[in-house]
Each structure stands twice: as C-alpha cells, then as structure tokens.
C-alpha cells in the first residue's frame, strides 16, 4: 500500500498555526522592558533564543484547536463545544504550577501526575459560581484517561502542538538532539530508545512524531492530526518522514 498524500487542509492548518505561534511567542512585549522590569533592546523586538513557557504551549493548543474546529466541523460541531474544549486545554496544565513540566518519556508516574493535576484544577475552579467547572473537570478526566472521543481529541491537540513546536525550532536551526537529554538527565528511557531505533534519528521532532504514530494511530481523529504533523515536516525539511511505514 502507498503512503497517503498530505492534504491541503493539513498544510493550511500548519501554516496558520506556525504564523501565529512563531510570531507571538518570539515577540517581546515592550512596555515592561522599557520600564526596566526585564532586559529589553528596542532594536531587537524579537527573541528566538529564550525558553518556552507552559503559557505559550497552551496558546499553541488553543490556536491549533481553533483551526481544526473550522476545517473539521464534525470534530468540533459548535461554539459551545469549542469553548469547553478550549477551557479544558487552558486549565489542564495548571497542575504544573506545583510539579513543573515533567517529560512524557515513559518514566514519569502518570497516575500520580494526573491525580495532582486534577486536584489542583478542582481547587482552582472551586470559587466559580456555575456548574461549568464540573464540565471542565469532567473533560480533564476524559483527556487524562483518553476515555471518550472528546478526551482523545483534546489529548491529541496537546501532543500534536508539542511536535509542531519542535518543527518551528528546527526551522530556526534548533533541532535538538537526544544525546543532550541523555547527558543532562543521565537517563534514556526505553521509549526514547525505541523511537530512536524506529526513526534512525536523534531529533525530537522525529522521535515524538513516531511516538504519536505508534501509540495513537488507532484513534478516530489520528489521521487528521498526523496529516498536520507531516505537513510541518514537509514544509520545514522539504520532504516527508523517511521512517513512515508503507501503509501510513
């Protein structure tokens, strides 16, 4: 079987996402800088070297979901659904305010992380006067457990955004290397190893994309997300993934 062609929708969504994420996350707000709150050079209003925050990742997920909602209305059939999914993505990272961002490489305790994350969100939304908080918490649970179509969709948005951001870094000449992870953290997980072998690449964009393919290709919305990921690879590298199986 031949490899499926990348769709025009996938290419458009990637370009729209890249334009928004790359531009907004590198444009430094000047007001605080000119008052000396942080270093700022008015001749250099963009910074392509600083670290990414959780807030910028969340921004990327909201941008990505917005475009998917427009191009694939069957996945996000109403403004109400879109707003609920967006609020789930907006709040689900709040648990990292306490734990920090722990790499999803097969070594972390996901049950512990999910429990802490859910508790933090529950406490955070406790003051809300409406039942909307219960709906958001329910969607967070579905996302964590991947127990519904909606939960899987939101989860795929979260994972896909991180892979797409990798391609933005790669386009800027910052591909990353698995050897750096091994050196800094003195560990290389079994998942890391399997992804490296499968892709014959130490670039996180390849390894994470393969991990997404390997673990989630049976999800009903997988083709849509992987199509966007492949569009990113084609745009940045000028070619599709070299490790794709024939029937992809």
Number of helical segments?
12
**CATH architecture heading:** Orthogonal Bundle
What's the pLDDT, averaged over the residues? 91
Strand content: under 5%
The ordered H/E elements are HHHHHHHHHHHH
Give start-end ranges of low-pLDDT stretches: none
Write down the CATH class: Mainly Alpha
Largest sheet: none
Main structural class: mainly alpha
Amount of helix: 55-70%
- The CATH superfamily is Hypothetical protein af1432
Structure description:
With 248 residues, this protein is mainly alpha-helical. It has a single domain, classed as Hypothetical protein af1432. It has 12 helices and no strands. The chain is globular.
List the helices and strands and how they pair.
Blueprint: H1 8-26, H2 30-34, H3 54-71, H4 79-92, H5 96-99, H6 110-124, H7 132-145, H8 149-171, H9 178-185, H10 190-199, H11 204-216, H12 222-237
Helix pairs in contact: 1-3, 1-12, 3-4, 3-8, 4-7, 6-7, 7-8, 8-11, 8-12, 10-11
């Amino acid at each position: 079987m031949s490899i499926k062609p990348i769709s025009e929708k996938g290419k458009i969504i990637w370009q729209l996402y890249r334009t928004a994420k790359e531009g907004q996350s590198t444009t430094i707000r000047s007001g605080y800088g000119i008052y000396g709150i942080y270093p700022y050079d008015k001749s250099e209003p963009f910074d392509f070297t600083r670290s990414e925050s959780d807030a910028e990742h969340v921004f990327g997920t909201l941008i990505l979901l917005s475009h998917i909602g427009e191009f694939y209305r069957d996945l996000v059939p109403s403004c109400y659904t879109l707003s609920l999914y967006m609020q789930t993505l907006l709040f689900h990272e709040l648990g990292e305010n306490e734990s920090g961002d722990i790499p999803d490489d097969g070594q972390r305790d996901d049950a512990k992380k999910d429990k802490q994350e859910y508790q933090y969100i529950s406490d955070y939304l406790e003051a809300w006067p409406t039942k909307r908080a219960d709906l958001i918490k329910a969607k967070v649970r579905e996302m964590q457990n991947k127990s519904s179509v909606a939960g899987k969709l939101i989860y795929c948005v979260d994972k896909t955004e991180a892979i797409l951001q990798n391609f933005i870094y790669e386009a800027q000449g910052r591909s990353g290397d698995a050897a750096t992870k091994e050196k800094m953290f003195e560990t290389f997980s079994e998942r890391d190893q399997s992804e490296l072998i499968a892709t014959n690449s130490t670039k996180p964009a390849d390894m994470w994309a393969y991990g997404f393919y390997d673990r989630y290709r049976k999800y009903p919305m997988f083709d849509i997300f992987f199509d966007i990921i492949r569009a990113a690879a084609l745009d940045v590298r000028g070619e599709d993934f070299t490790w794709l199986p024939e029937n992809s």
